[in-house]
Amino acid sequence: MSIVDTVKQGAQGLVQGAMTKLVPLAPDSWIPGGVPDPLIQHKHGLIGTSVSRLDGPLKVQGGAQFAAEFRFENMAYCALVYATIPRGRITAIDGAAAEAAPGVVLVMSHLNAPRMNKPPAFGSSPNGVGPADLTIFQDDRVHWNGQPIVAVLADTQEQADHAAALVEVSYAPEPSTTSLAGAKANGIAQGLFMGQPLLNEIGDAEGALAKAAVKVDATYRTPRHNHNPIEPHAATIAWVGDELVIHDASQMVTQQAQTLGEVFDLAPEQVRLTSPYVGGGFGSKGLWDHQVIGAAAAKMAGRPVRIALSREGVYRVVGGRTLTEQRVAIGASADGRFEALIHTGLSVMTPHNNMPEPFILGTRAGYACPNIKLQVEVAQMNMLANTFMRAPGEAVGTFALESAIDELAEALAIDPVELRLRNEPDKDPTTGLPFSSRHIDTAWRDGAARFGWSDRGAAGTRREGEWLVGTGCATGTYPYYRMPGAEARITLRRDSDGVRALVEVAAAEMGMGTSTTTAIVAAERLGLPLDRVEVAYGDSAIPGAIMAGGSQQTAAIGAAVIAAHNALVAELLTLAGNDSPLAGLSAADVGSEEGGLAKLDDAARRESYGSILARAQRDQVTVTKAGTPPLELMHWSMHSHSALFCEVKVNAVTGETRVSRFLGAFDCGRILNAKTAASQFRGGIIMGLGLALMEETQFDERNGRIMNPSLAEYHLPVHLDVPEIDVIWTDIPDPHTPMGAHGVGEIGITGVGAAVANAIYNATGRRVRDLPITLDKLL
Amino acid sequence: MSLIVNGEAVALPSDPRVSLLDHLRETLHLTGTKKGCNQGACGACTVLVDGERILSCLALAVQYEGRSVTTIEGLAGENGLHPLQQAFIEHDGFQCGYCTPGQICSAIGMAAEAERGVPSHVSADLTAAVALTREEVQERMSGNLCRCGAHNGIVDAIRATVAAEWAA
What we know:
Number of helices of chain B: 6
Low-confidence stretches of chain A: 1-15
Strand content of chain A: 15-25%
CATH class of the largest domain in chain B: Mainly Alpha
Radius of gyration of chain A: 27 Å
CATH architecture of the largest domain in chain B: Orthogonal Bundle
Oligomer: heterodimer
Distance between the termini of chain A: 44 Å
CATH architecture of the domain at 406-481 and 631-779 in chain A: 2-Layer Sandwich
CATH superfamily of the domain at 406-481 and 631-779 in chain A: Aldehyde oxidase/xanthine dehydrogenase, molybdopterin binding domain
CATH topology of the domain at 406-481 and 631-779 in chain A: Aldehyde Oxidoreductase, domain 4
Helix content of chain A: 25-40%
Strand order of the largest sheet of chain A: 3-5-1-15-12-13-14
Order of helices and strands of chain B: EEHEEEHHHHH
Low-confidence stretches of chain B: none
Structural class of chain A: alpha+beta
């Protein structure tokens, strides 16, 4: 990060710090969520039922249009050339053979690319989402092995790919750091997350550990991971006059449009970014170099461009999760009460980004303990900027913490479920805030009963033929977030059957079910049938900025729709006038039900939307409103939880691990759509099985090159690796969130690594603290 | 020089380097067939050629002269969705939907393989008739990756439709 960015982050941190001190003292009723959302009490509608995806018919027929499937007239195709050194300068680019190849339109590099501003890096401004603190195609510097340095445009993809292979690049390499040992030797620094240090110290953790009756103290390692959405990153781009049109695969449409606008000196209205369908994202579908390169090439060539990264290209251009080394030490009394909890360690990032893997986040609110030390430090390597990947921090942090708790349970000879319950906190142990909703004990008890946890034996005691069988458990955790900036625009239109509603939000649908769930919630809030509600999203022309990240999108949309609905009610009351049964009522007195407005305590006083609009001689009414600022986050400690149970079979001959059973019991507030929420839980758990057993981005420490940039060599769970996964939930609404809901996108992956590792320990008596748990570690 | 796609004769590309996948997507604008890796590792590009499943990214279009290709766009009939397409919706056998066309085409080809008695790695008896148990379906579909983690729903949808038909 530049000094300017660091100062900005510091300033943001100060403001946030002041708010953090004031907001907890405010009475509940001043806080968003202080008065429960009325939808929480509304129990007989669609919310919580199983609704099939509204975009399902389109998707199963191949009709959903993804970024690389838009077309423009006279479109050229782009291929990229990637640097082969980790750090240094480009001394020469020989593009003559490429330029002479059939169909070639343009060979673009820093030597001829248009001048472009540096994209504001992620977090450096409210809507800045640049991939790194670096310019793109503006100088001869190489910052990572795999950096795109030349772009070739041709009439077809085949011609572009061939011509790119003809480009010769010469380099002057400079000293680089590509090994973990080298990075540590260069020095480590305190890690910052959202401008705040990843550091908590309460009491004297080391002193209490030394005095504890029973203790565990070990180091856990997790490797790099790549998101690997099945849709590779792509954009189809055209300049229409002085407007940039980009059909992208995006988790953050507004922010990407604004960042691209800053790169090309365009006003916000001059960039139109659409992203109607995203073929998986998991944190990766943001702004990377390729969209900037594609837009620059399109500008230079005067032709629209399709830039679809190859699978290898995704590994070269799109960052993943970085590696961690974590120490977890827990000291406990003989009856299992935690006296000391230490979770510290190292994460690696680059000189050009600021994203330590924040693996202590889940520990902060995890367990009651009088002496706590949590810290993430960082070292730097010359590599592609790492980024957010599903449950950044918690996914790998829970592996270390929840493995250590299992080790402690073994040392204490206390059941690991009981040990966790015994250390359940009554308030947030690091902030002191009250919990908004925490029913993890219910999840544990329900899950244990359903899984048959009481049948568990001692480590290494169950065997079926050549298979060693064991069970393990772990807690998953992920915070409730809600980011500012979300807006909703609601339009009611009159037709022959009443009214139809259009709800527009600048959100993204990557398969979470957001468009369906938004329609369900909006229909219930407006008192309309589901088929009278249309949801539009994935378009920067829609007001507001919403990110499909931090599992916060549903809450952000929910709060914006609440605000817009309130504004709509007020507007309709104005339109209703003095002849309406609603005359004289204020917005606070009425609510929506059955296609109209009704007095809350006297439903006989009602009028349909259609009637109100007709009398006012209006065909439609539109309101746009932003959600309240997310102050609830500073007033309560807000988290989701899971209790995870896993059964594995480990082959005594080959060391191969098969997961035979898995149960997730979730405490995530009210579930809005049982069908799509279950899929989110299962999807997270399955990605967690990959994290536990097979996933690793292999990084060549000699030269900083990713060695397995393909789906053949980066192993994901396939059908035969995935057992039937059972998911249940408490369905207890959080009284302080929109709809009583929490996000469900990331919680699923958390804790899974430890649940599997703990089951493997129970099967084999072998403790593996180094992910992934491949068979060589069990032989 | 033509090939048949979803029942219609279409021209082959003049450039012999063009894969069947790119021909479908970029020339014929049949973008339902997906490109996930372009190297035969993910299965997203699976189509049916004369009823057999193939990876269209590893197939050169010109090799398929005169052959009959069925893509995801060709599965729904006059009476609506193919039963497997409907089952994918009911069982939530997808999230983002990107691997879905490949999963569906692959499953149809897979069921036909089972019907012909083709054994798999998990078949206990290589000469016996194939029973599409859950494990057999999982093994036979393992070439189709899904990153959203819809595996349970995919297998359920397949077993409820094409596998059940064959078993019946």
